[in-house]
Amino acid sequence: DGDKFDAAGLHREASDRVAAVSVAQCGARIERRVVQELPFEERTWFIGEVVAARRSPEHLGDAALMCDREFYRIPGDAVASR
After folding, report:
1. Is the model's pTM score more than 0.85?
2. How does strand 43-55 pair with strand 66-67?
3. pLDDT in single tens digits along all 82 residues of the chain
């Protein structure tokens, strides 16, 4: 419930090629169009086609927050479990 952007202090920014908004604070963005949905156990996997990608000039990639199956990570270190 509630606005997750407001709760996290994030700002919306129009995407280039998709209807969904982007997070303005993200240094790198990949926009995708869903081309297939695959039911898999208790979740659905979405197969997408990349239709746009951009990177802020100041984004070097060494401070990126990433997530995998078990952890949120910054390059080289686990930050927290999911």
Report:
1. no
2. unpaired
3. 899 899 999 999 999 999 999 999 888 889 999 999 999 999 999 999 999 999 888 877 776 777 777 877 777 666 667 6
Tokens coding 25 = 């604070």
- Using the structure block, give the residue that is written with the tokens 């990608």: 53
Match 């000039």 to its residue by tokens: 57
Rounded distance between C-alpha atoms, residue 18 and residue 58, angstroms: 24
Provide φ and ψ at 4, rounded to 5°.
-70, -35
Residue 13, phi-psi category: left (phi > 0), alpha (psi -120 to 50), beta (remainder): beta
Angle among Cα 21, 63, 53 to the nearest 5 degrees reads: 35
